[in-house]
Write a structure and sequence with these properties.
single chain, 316 residues, alpha+beta, Rossmann fold, 9-stranded mixed β-sheet, 4-stranded antiparallel β-sheet, 17 strands, globular, binds manganese (II) ion
Length: 316
């Protein structure tokens, strides 16, 4: 079937929801086509495009419905010439990844009492990376000296979003801090500092920037569980990932299932089997997908799940 899809894409791409980012001119000049699970991804010198094959409409109908993906930002305390400001910030790579996967990204700044109102307005949740969770959130009485970036406001906001999101079966994708938020919100615990933990975890180097590796380079491998959502999405059980974390899951929360591990045994990916779509990873696929297009697969899966959820809600 693949050759047919390949020839159909150029004719239909304007009508079938393909997203382009960074297009500067002739976007279809000599593209390379990748087939990753159910998704096609094309990379050319001028554009990155992707499309979910399950929503493929070969009849020339209008674009498939684009689900709204709410992304949680990080607090940033910035000194400016006109004062000191707390700002809600987020790497543009998260936005680019959601756009490239066919979703509409919006930013969800932390706020009290609006959890359900926000979940009413988004079709999926993306928990972005950031600083450490307050250790008391998972019952720790000590605070490791390497702890950084604690935000009570962000912790509470994201924990509330996860707990209500799970109850409401909102599609959820957690990245880096996001896997830790998901685990803690559901009753799990964290290793406060991987490097000072058990000796066998240190050699892997989960902070690849300290070894001079760029953000889009592979820092270590992850072994994926057979028959997991991730193995289906990536089409392989071994995956090269980047790594910028000093904390990791310790005690896995009830309801979560570990589906990816680094060679030192750290949990690098989880899913929640009882949810329609709930997945989280310890690496940063949004920083990799331009040069490692397979890393767009989970964004495409999130967008597909969010679209399905939104269309089901519309039909009710
Ligand atoms: Mn890692």
């Amino acid at each position: 079937m693949a050759p047919n899809r390949r020839t159909e894409i150029p004719r239909l791409h304007h009508a079938s929801g393909i997203r382009c980012i960074a297009a500067t001119g002739s976007e279809w000049r000599s593209p390379t086509v990748y087939f990753i699970g159910l998704w096609e991804i094309r990379i050319s010198t001028t554009a990155v495009v992707s499309r979910n094959c399950r929503s493929f409409v070969p009849t020339g109908e209008s674009s498939p419905m684009k689900p709204v993906i709410g992304i949680t930002p990080s607090p940033s305390h910035d000194e400016m010439p006109h004062g000191s400001f707390l700002r809600h910030c987020m790497a543009a790579a998260y936005v680019d990844a959601v756009l490239s996967a066919g979703g509409i990204p919006i930013v969800l700044p932390p706020q009290e009492d609006h959890t359900d109102a926000l979940l009413d307005r988004v079709d999926g949740l993306l928990l972005s990376g950031g600083g450490d969770l307050e250790p008391s959130r998972y019952g720790a009485t000590n605070v490791h000296e390497t702890t950084y970036g604690i935000s009570h406001e962000r912790d509470q906001f994201e924990i509330d979003l996860v707990r209500r999101g799970i109850v409401r079966d909102v599609p959820i994708f957690g990245i880096c801090r996001g896997i830790q938020v998901l685990n803690v919100a559901l009753g799990g615990t964290l290793v406060q500092d991987v490097a000072s933990g058990s000796p066998e975890t240190a050699p892997i180097g989960h902070r690849q920037h300290e070894a001079g590796l760029r953000s889009d380079e592979i820092g270590h491998d992850v072994r994926l569980a057979e028959d997991s959502l991730l193995t289906e999405a990536y089409g392989d059980r071994r995956l090269g990932v980047n790594s910028f974390h000093h904390q990791a899951i310790d005690g896995l929360a009830p309801g979560l299932e570990a589906v990816g591990w680094s060679a030192d045994g750290l949990i690098e990916a989880v899913t929640m089997p009882a949810s329609s779509f709930c997945v989280a990873v310890q690496w940063h696929p949004e920083l990799m997908f331009v040069h490692h297009p397979e890393q767009l697969a989970l964004f495409a899966a999130l967008v597909a799940a969010a679209r399905k959820s939104a269309m089901a809600a519309t039909a009710r």
